[in-house]
């Protein structure tokens, strides 16, 4: 049975809180009464979240420099991790590796050490099958990111104590969102290769929030894009029916 709840006393540790997806998640976590500890890179970002989002529980850290112990300290009192940090826009291969792979590994290992049970992360469509990259620009344009993200996903999937969900998203955009998505183990590539698979950040954030307690997504890697027509489903319905797809 799928459990979907809108409120929780579990504190969420959110990375990438100052990013475009992270800020949407902050609003939605507050909307559904999820307590949150936000992680940002600078004191300036912290001040902005304090002033504009009335957020009090904020930690500052550079993903490229944080140790596993640093993450363990940040996770004190948290029961859930949402990793929304991203660096695929960068062309610096060392920076991509530090943020996309090495820091992900340290955060995952810290979560295991701290007894975290629920872990949600944002990956990208096409990291594990290059042919999909013809319909999705994220990995097509940045092979270093694709390779590092795939290895980070693999490390997370090895952890036996984490109820993880990996959202492999299409190209993210800032559209208002359709509220209708495909959430599947594998999305079929557009054979004509004319359509770029996209996903609104708003719809991704909604999917993440509604998947927090969706036990049919525990220990699952899912692909998610916006869709139209009868086969695309409202987000909560797509989550509920995932096992049947």
Q: How is the secondary structure organized here?
A:
Layout: E1 12-15, H1 20-31, E2 36-40, H2 43-53, E3 58-60, H3 68-74, E4 80-83, H4 93-113, E5 118-124, H5 137-140, H6 143-157, E6 163-169, E7 171-173, E8 180-184, E9 198-200, H7 201-211, E10 220-226, E11 233-234, H8 235-240
Parallel strand pairs: 1-2, 1-4, 2-3, 4-5, 5-6, 6-10, 7-9
Antiparallel strand pairs: 8-10, 8-11
Helix pairs in contact: 1-7, 3-4, 4-6
Summarize the structure.
The chain has 245 residues and is of the alpha/beta class. The protein has eight helices and eleven strands. The protein starts with 11 loop residues before the first strand and ends in a 5-residue tail after the last helix.
Give the termini distance in whole angstroms.
Answer: 15 Å
Task: Give the strand content.
Answer: 15-25%
The count of strands amounts to 11
| Estimated helix fraction | 25-40%
Compute the average pLDDT.
90
Query: Which geometry do the CA atoms define?
Result: globular
Task: List the total number of helices.
Answer: 8
Largest sheet: 9 strands, mixed
Q: Low-confidence parts lasting 5 or more residues at pLDDT below 50?
A: 1-6
Strand order of the largest sheet: 3-2-1-4-5-6-10-8-11
Please trace the helix and strand order, writing H or E for each element: EHEHEHEHEHHEEEEHEEH
Q: Radius of gyration, rounded?
A: 17 Å
Which structural class is indicated by helix and strand composition? alpha/beta
């Amino acid at each position: 049975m799928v459990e979907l709840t809108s409120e929780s006393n579990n504190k969420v540790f959110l990375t990438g809180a100052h990013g475009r997806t992270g800020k949407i998640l902050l609003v939605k976590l507050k909307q559904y009464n999820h307590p949150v500890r936000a992680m940002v890179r600078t004191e300036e970002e912290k001040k902005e979240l304090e002033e504009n989002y009335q957020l009090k529980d904020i930690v500052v850290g550079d993903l490229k420099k944080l140790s596993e112990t640093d993450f363990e300290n940040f996770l004190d009192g948290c029961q859930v991790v949402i990793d929304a940090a991203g660096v695929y826009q960068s062309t610096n291969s060392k920076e991509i590796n530090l943020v996309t792979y090495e820091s992900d590994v340290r955060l995952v290992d810290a979560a295991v050490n701290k007894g975290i049970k629920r872990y949600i992360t944002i990956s990208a469509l096409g990291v594990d099958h290059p042919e999909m990259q013809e319909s999705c620009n994220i990995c097509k344009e940045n092979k270093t990111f694709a390779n590092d993200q795939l290895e980070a996903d693999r490390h997370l999937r090895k952890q036996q104590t984490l109820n993880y969900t990996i959202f492999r998203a299409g190209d993210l955009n800032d559209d208002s969102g359709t509220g209708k998505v495909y959430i599947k183990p594998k999305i079929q590539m557009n054979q004509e290769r004319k359509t770029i698979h996209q996903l609104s950040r708003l719809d991704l954030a909604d999917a993440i929030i509604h998947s927090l307690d969706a036990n049919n997504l525990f220990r699952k890697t899912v692909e998610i894009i916006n869709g139209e027509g009868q086969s695309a489903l409202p987000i909560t319905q797509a989550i509920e029916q995932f096992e049947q797809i």
